[in-house]
Amino acid sequence: MNEVYDFLKACGTYYLATVDGDMPKVRPFGTIDIFEGKLYIQTGKVKDVSKQLHANPNAEICAFKDGQWIRVAGKLISDDRLEPKVHMLDAYPNLQAMYKADDDNTEVLYFEDAVATIYSFTDAPKTIKL
C-alpha cells in the first residue's frame, strides 16, 4: 500500500477513469491519502465524477513517472465520516479554501477490492493487492 501511495504522491497528478452510462470518463486528480489502512482520494459531491462513482463504483487510476507507470483498479467507496475528510484536508491544506471537512460537498472515497500494477519498459509488472 505504501509503495502505491508513494508512487502516486510522487507523480503529483494521476488520471482517474470512471464510467458514465456506457462511456468512459477520465480526468486529472491530485489527492491521495492513506487513512486506517485504506487508499483514499477526494472530490466534491457536486461533481460529475462523484455521481458517476455512486452509480458505478468501478474505477481505475493511471499515472506515469520516470519510465514507470501504475494502474490501480477497484471500487471507490464513499466514506462520509468526518475523520477521513479531516485527514485528507490536513494532507492538502491548499484545498481548505474550497472544501471543509464538515460541509455538504467534501467527499472522500477509498479503494476496495483493488489491485495496483506497476509497469516499466524494462522490468516485469509488479502487482500489489490493496
Radius of gyration: 14 Å
In terms of structural class, how would the helical and strand content be classed?
alpha+beta
Q: Can you count the helices?
A: 3
Query: In sequence order, what are the helices and strands, one letter per element?
Result: HEEEEHEEHEE
Give the total of beta strands.
8
Give a short summary of the structure.
With 130 residues, the protein is α+β, with helices and mostly antiparallel strands. It is built from three helices and eight strands, in the order αββββαββαββ. Strands 1, 2, 3, 4, 5, 6, 7 and 8 form an eight-stranded antiparallel beta sheet that branches.
Describe this structure in words.
The protein contains 3 helices and 8 strands. It is 22% helix and 48% strand. With 130 residues, the chain is of the alpha+beta class. Strands 1, 2, 3, 4, 5, 6, 7 and 8 form an 8-stranded antiparallel sheet that branches. The mean pLDDT is 97. It is globular. It has helices at 2-11, 48-55, 82-91, and strands spanning 14-20, 23-29, 33-35, 38-44, 58-65, 68-79, 106-120, 126-129. The longest helix has 10 residues, at 2-11.
Q: Could you list some keywords that capture this structure?
A:
130 residues, eight-stranded antiparallel β-sheet
Topology readout:
Blueprint: H1 2-11, E1 14-20, E2 23-29, E3 33-35, E4 38-44, H2 48-55, E5 58-65, E6 68-79, H3 82-91, E7 106-120, E8 126-129
Antiparallel strand pairs: 1-2, 1-5, 3-4, 4-7, 5-6, 6-7, 7-8
